[in-house]
Structure formats: structure tokens, C-alpha cells
Design a protein that fits this description.
Elements (H helix, E strand, L loop, with lengths): L1 H7 L7 H35 L1 H4 L3 H23 L8 H5 L6 H4 L2 H17 L1 H4 L3 H49 L6 H8 L8 E7 L5 H13 L12 E7 L2 E7 L5 H9 L8 E2 L9 H14 L10 E2 L4 H6 L3 H17 L2 H12 L4 H8 L3 H15 L6 H22 L1
Parallel strand pairs: 4-5
Antiparallel strand pairs: 1-3, 1-4, 2-3
Length: 417
């Protein structure tokens, strides 16, 4: 009697408590399935009431949000049905909506949406349960599921941010390349605006050697240096910077460069590898940045001829080296801004300057050759400084003036020939 009962006991299945628990869970799941539509509608109604961003959304996006809310509740029901086979929920919940929805709904808004949906379900847990124990199990399940949803949301937006970051990096590289190639159309402005470019005026290009690091890290470092560089008289957190690594060169397009460019950009020079860093002329707008880039690149090539050049150095301070290296733009600048103004001021200035430089910057020697008083030489040299901004008694200025005189004579000789 007792033995037969003992023999049939293993075939009876699970223990009564386990069977009851499974049956209770099944009943809860069925009630959740029936209530899915009503719960989603209640969640949408609460979002409509609480969030202006939801009320202002286009109808199409609102319908997608509704589907995501309903899919979330349905996914929770399925998740709750199989406590021992719980998998990731991101595809079940967010797979119902197009990826474009992540652009229309921010991460903060998504958190608000998920939180509201969970609150609605939690408010109705007692109505969905038939016992305090069932209610406890359902609340615990909702708590664990909300954690899964939080991780899924973070993953979706992290992937979107990563894709956007890769796209932004490619777009930034295209802008830098376009500037170096001399493109000057309005598409530059629209592309830069897409990246949050704020500067409208005072643009320059810096060039130098790139550090031995990943290009992405180098560009990010330049961005940080620009953001943290306060600019007097410029609205914004700092300098606007677009950067790119091309071969062994690092190129930075910098906006909002007010005052002395060398002083303003000295902090950014630290982002370059050891070696010369050259700053192109400041131009009025981004579409003219190619001119600054051309001068900066020419200066970088010629900087080897001035080993003691400051860092950073202006491309205009490298005019004589650039001219000797064959830069036609530098030659034109030296002719137009130095030689011709001196020639137009009278032959006496050119003659005095030439003799003074040939006599190793000696006032007395120049005066003897010119048959004038040393004070006359001194006066004429001051006039040279007034016209050109260069002081003949300083070695660097004297070198620049000497190259300008050579180029001017060659140009005049070519005309006479």
C-alpha cells in the first residue's frame, strides 16, 4: 500500500509548490498578454500629458513611439514567461522602430519614455495579480527587466553615437582635404555647420608634423585644445577647430583667431610633433581658407632654411625662405609690399637701403659712400621702416629686405629686357 504509493510518486511530475508557481506565472502571463494594448495606450496617454516633446512630434514618429512602448510590454511578457531563458531585449523592443528614430528622439527622451511605460505597468501590477506573492514576483520581474531595458537603450545610442562619430570624422577629413585642394564654394560652410562649426570670421590654417599616434586621437586632442583656449572678444567656449592628418602632416583649420595669431595659437602648437609649426595668414571666411593653407604649407616646406624660427611661426615671417624656395606667392608679396612701395617713395631710399645692407649695417660706412651725413642715412632708414614695417638694423628684417631688393631688381631687369 505504502510501497505502491511511493513507487508512483516520482511519476507525478514536479512538486505541488513548483507546479502551483508555474501555473500562477502562466495565469499572470495570460493577463499581461490581454492587457498589453491597454497598458501601451495608458503609457502613451501619460507621455502625451507629461512631455511637450512628445506632443510636438510628427504623427509618424509618435506612432513609432507607441509601437516601441507596446513592443516593450510584449517583450516583458515573453521575458517573464521564460524565467530560465532570458536573452537580450534590444532587438525585441527597439527593432520595431527604424534607426532614424534615434535621431528624432534623444537619449534623455528615450529614458523618459521607458520610465513612463514602466511606471504605468508598475501602477497596474496589483490589478494584474491575484495574490500578494504574485504581485511581489511581478514587481521583481519588472525591476530586473527595466535594468535590461536600460542596458539595451544605452547600447543602441552608443552604437548610433559611434556611427555618427565615424561619419563626422570622414566629413571633417573631406573639409580639410577640400581646403588644401583650393575649393572655395559654399558647400564648405554647409559641411562645417553640420559638424557644429561656429566661427564665421578670422580663419587661419596651422600646419606641422603629426604626432606618432592614431589619427583619431591626434584630431581629438586638437579639438580639446581649441575648446579650452579662451578667446577674447569671441563668443563661444573657445576656438573652432577642424583638423586632419595627411601622411606625416597635421593640418588644423582654426576659427575665431583674434589679436596676435602667434599668441592665440601657441597652446595649439603643443598638439603637433616636434618641428616647425606654421600659421597661415588670417582670412575673413572659411571659403578663403585655402589661401591661408597654401601659405602655411609653403612655409612648412621652407622652414628648414630658418632653424631658429619661433614655434609657431607666421608664414609671412618666412617670406624670404619661401621666395628662395620658389614660392611665387611669396615673391609677389615681397615685390608688392616691400620693393615697389620703396621704389615709389624715391630712388634715394632704395639706394640708401642697398648701400647700408652691403656695408654690414654700418651707418658711417654707408654715409661715406653716399656722400651724406650719417643722420641722413638714419632718417632714410626710418622711412624704410615706416613704409615696410621692417627695421634694417635687425638681422631678420635686413635679410627680408635684401631678398626683396634682389627680387625687385630681377623683376625690373626682366621688364627692361
Amino acid at each position: 500500500m505504502d510501497t505502491s504509493h511511493a513507487q508512483t510518486q516520482p511519476d507525478s511530475g514536479d512538486a505541488p509548490s513548483e507546479r502551483e508557481s508555474r501555473e500562477s506565472r502562466g495565469a499572470t502571463v495570460r493577463r499581461l498578454e490581454k492587457a498589453t494594448g491597454a497598458l501601451a495606450a495608458a503609457a502613451i496617454a501619460r507621455m502625451e500629458e507629461k512631455f511637450a516633446w512628445y506632443r510636438n512630434m510628427p504623427p509618424e514618429n509618435r506612432s513609432w513611439v507607441g509601437l516601441v512602448a507596446q513592443a516593450g510590454i510584449a517583450a516583458f511578457t515573453e521575458w517573464f514567461r521564460h524565467p530560465d531563458q532570458r536573452s537580450a531585449v534590444s532587438a525585441d523592443v527597439f527593432g520595431t522602430a527604424p534607426r532614424e528614430l534615434t535621431r528624432a528622439v534623444t537619449l534623455q527622451q528615450t529614458v523618459q519614455m521607458v520610465r513612463t511605460t514602466i511606471e504605468v505597468v508598475e501602477d497596474r501590477i496589483d490589478a494584474l495579480s491575484e495574490s500578494p506573492e504574485e504581485s511581489r514576483i511581478l514587481r521583481e520581474g519588472m525591476l530586473r527587466y527595466s535594468r535590461e531595458i536600460a542596458f539595451a537603450t544605452a547600447q543602441i545610442y552608443a552604437q548610433t553615437a559611434e556611427l555618427r562619430g565615424a561619419w563626422d570624422a570622414r566629413l571633417e577629413a573631406l573639409i580639410v582635404d577640400a581646403v588644401l585642394r583650393g575649393e572655395e564654394d559654399d558647400s564648405l560652410l554647409s559641411r562645417a555647420s553640420t559638424l557644429g562649426w561656429a566661427a564665421r570670421t578670422d580663419i587661419t590654417v596651422m600646419v606641422g608634423l603629426a604626432p606618432d599616434d592614431e589619427a583619431e586621437a591626434v584630431v581629438d586632442g586638437m579639438h580639446r585644445a581649441g575648446r579650452h583656449r579662451p578667446v577674447s572678444g569671441y563668443e563661444g567656449p573657445g576656438l573652432s577647430v577642424l583638423a586632419g592628418v595627411q601622411g606625416d602632416r597635421l593640418i588644423a583649420i582654426v576659427g575665431g583667431v583674434t589679436g596676435d595669431p602667434v599668441t592665440t595659437l601657441r597652446a595649439l602648437a603643443g598638439q603637433f610633433a616636434p618641428g616647425p609649426v606654421v600659421i597661415g595668414p588670417v582670412v575673413a571666411e572659411l571659403t578663403a581658407a585655402s589661401r591661408s593653407a597654401e601659405a602655411a604649407l609653403s612655409g612648412l616646406r621652407a622652414a628648414v632654411a630658418w632653424p631658429d624660427a619661433p614655434r609657431p611661426v607666421l608664414a609671412d615671417d618666412l617670406l624670404p625662405e619661401r621666395a628662395v624656395a620658389g614660392d611665387e606667392l611669396a615673391r609677389a608679396v615681397l615685390l608688392e609690399e616691400i620693393y615697389r612701395p620703396l621704389a615709389e617713395a624715391g630712388s634715394a631710399l632704395l639706394e640708401t637701403l642697398s648701400v647700408y645692407l652691403e656695408q654690414a649695417a654700418s651707418l658711417e660706412a654707408a654715409a661715406r659712400i653716399l656722400f651724406v651725413h650719417p643722420n641722413t642715412v638714419r632718417y632714410r632708414l626710418r622711412r624704410v621702416t615706416d613704409i615696410t614695417g621692417l627695421t634694417p638694423s635687425q638681422a631678420r628684417s635686413a635679410f627680408t629686405l635684401q631678398i626683396a631688393l634682389v627680387l625687385g631688381r630681377l623683376a625690373e631687369s626682366g621688364k627692361s629686357a
